[in-house]
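Appendix B. One record, verbatim.
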Amino acid sequence: MSNASPAVVNESSYLTLHYRLAIAGGADLITTFNGTPATLLLGQGQLAPFLEQRLLGLPEGAHETFALSAQEAFGDRNPELIQPVSKATLEENSVPDADYKVGELIEFNAPKGGRFAGVLLEMRDDSALFDFNHPLAGQALQFEVKLISVL
């Protein structure tokens, strides 16, 4: 019998785990607990940085649940991120002749490079009103993790 202590998660750990992200007190957003566990390498953007931070220092075999305030998760909603985009700009930088619906998350190229993603709030005669906040901004979340292996 070995007296070796379990491996502990660090910034470059390779993990096999089950995890669940849910709205606090509500529905699951994603879960692996009903299927195949996830395998990922920390620091590669496979999990949001605020989720990776919760894993650091946990030993192999740990099963933890974390409550995350909106500020700890995707931040508070920012009213300044609700912006109009001209229809001309939208048409030049998105799928040609797309039939967008209010409530859809739409990705399009930024006029000077990069990409935007926002929820369409309203289609106007000459512009479209978008909410560029993360869809989960302003919401408290719950993160549950069960570490199967840590390398």
